[in-house]
Amino acid sequence: MHLTRVETEHVTMGADHELLEACRGGDREAFRQIFERHSSRVRSVALHFFDGDAAAADDVVQGVFLKLHARIAQFRGDSLLSTWLHRLVVNACLDDRRGRRRLRPLDALDDTTLGAVAAGQGEAAEAEQRLRRVRAAVASLPPKLRIAVLLRHFEDLAYDEMAQALGCSPGTVASRLNRGHAALARALSEFDPRERVP
Amino acid sequence: MSRHVDRRLQHYLDGAVPSREAAWIAEHLLSCERCRRLHDDVSRGRALLSALPAAGSGAEWAGIQRQLDGAAAPRRTRRRAWLAAAAGLVVGVMAIGWALRMPDAWIVEVVAGRPIAGARGLTATASLDTGQWLETDGDSRARLVMRGLGTIDVEPNSRLRVVSPGTLFSSSERRLELDVGRLHARVIAPPRLFVVETPSATAIDMGCEYTLAVDASGATWIRVISGLVRMDLGDRIVDVRAGTEFRLDPRP
């Protein structure tokens, strides 16, 4: 049996509300279940927002869930927990990039190195190269476009949900997605063999 | 047919517009080069994102638990304080406090060349006391050894000092400061016992083997070979796991 998106939301909402109630009573296990349920998507957005920096993603995930725990009593329950979480993720990503020293992974390769790797190792290296180039192109987007594109890709949110998370109108969401996606296509034109119409 | 379709493009590509509107947009795209170009770019951009994998689960829950435990600490702290007081009384009665206050010693072994410990060039094994610097030039190497803790290989062109040697028979931390250069640590002591300060962070051993380096600007590199090193960056803690390598910019 397949659930529609609305039905899935109701199921998720119900389960989250039960867990939230338990969390308000100090149930650490319930909070862990909320973490298990949502942390992977939070981490995906943060990881690619910070160009594959796992330490930065760890920071964001920890920060988001600690903030969630601290404010859990304030959650009124008239919206999805995930909507609230998305807002926290957006704020954490946009805040975290400002002026903090970063512990950076040293495996980031530049284009020259990537070329040599790809030439030497065939398909696996090509896939790896593609991943790195896409990740780098995403990381080079302005932060507001980047977070919109990543939320859309990993969370599959409706436009009004994205608008709530990003604190803007649905029209602005559409505009940011258009600009973000088009910028990616231009930055990664070598991956698309089709010729552009003049 | 003059109205452009920018605002509905994402919905159109999602297949989320009514069929009449979809037909209208499709017709518009045939006649409007601007919108067609945007449509092509946006659909390519969306497709390219499929190369980005979802992240696997991290180890953040442990960190969250630690922080939550820390936030709920006052009662435990009081309990610990009582326990500590009782333990201190027992220790006093046993009258072996003098032994517990004796500093443990770092022993310097010369591996190559003539490292300098304190102000003197070494040719043989010597001890390195609190506050003393150990320096290696381009030709010299040294090994620091402490009983029950492990070995620290000090590479050429390095400078480090003993901040705190710890005390005999106790679990107080052994703290070094790496000012510049490179060291390789193999630690067998329990977690948190061996600590290295650098100009940009503090590396807290959690039971592991790692290489730590500091350049002239104060930037720090760390590569963890096994186990885990906890990096205290001042404003936050980051765990660096085996098989990973990181660089940290100097403090501003």
Tell me about this structure:
The complex is a heterodimer of chains A (198) and B (252). Chain A has 198 residues and is mainly α. Chain A starts with a helix and ends in an 11-residue tail after the last helix. Chain A is 72% helix and 2% strand. In chain A, 39% of the residues are buried. In chain A, helix 4 packs across helix 7 (159-166) and helix 6 crosses helix 8 (170-187). The longest helix of chain B is centred in the first third of the chain and has 22 residues, at 73-94. Chain B has 6 helices and 16 strands. Chain B has a 16-stranded mixed sheet that branches. Chain B is elongated and about 85 Å long. Classes of the chains: A mainly alpha (198), B alpha+beta (252). The interface between A and B is large, with 58 and 54 residues.
In a nutshell, what does this entry contain?
The complex is a heterodimer of chains A (198) and B (252). Chain A is mainly alpha-helical and 198 residues long.
Write the layout of secondary structure elements.
The complex is a heterodimer of chains A (198) and B (252).
Chain A: H1 5-24, H2 28-49, H3 54-70, H4 81-96, E1 103-105, H5 111-139, H6 143-155, H7 159-166, H8 170-187
Chain B: H1 6-14, H2 19-31, H3 33-48, H4 60-71, H5 73-94, H6 97-100, E1 106-112, E2 116-117, E3 120-121, E4 126-128, E5 133-135, E6 141-146, E7 150-154, E8 159-164, E9 174-187, E10 194-197, E11 202-205, E12 209-214, E13 220-226, E14 228-232, E15 237-241, E16 245-248
* Count of helical regions of chain A: 8
Q: What would you call the quaternary organization?
A: heterodimer
Strand content of chain A: under 5%
Tally of extended strands of chain A? 1
Give the N-to-C terminal Cα separation of chain A: 47 Å
Percent in helix of chain B: 25-40%
- Element order, helices and strands of chain B? HHHHHHEEEEEEEEEEEEEEEE
The 3D shape of chain B can be described as: elongated
Percent in helix of chain A? over 70%
Q: Strand tally of chain B, please?
A: 16
What distance separates the N and C termini of chain B?
A: 57 Å
Mass-distribution shape of chain A: globular
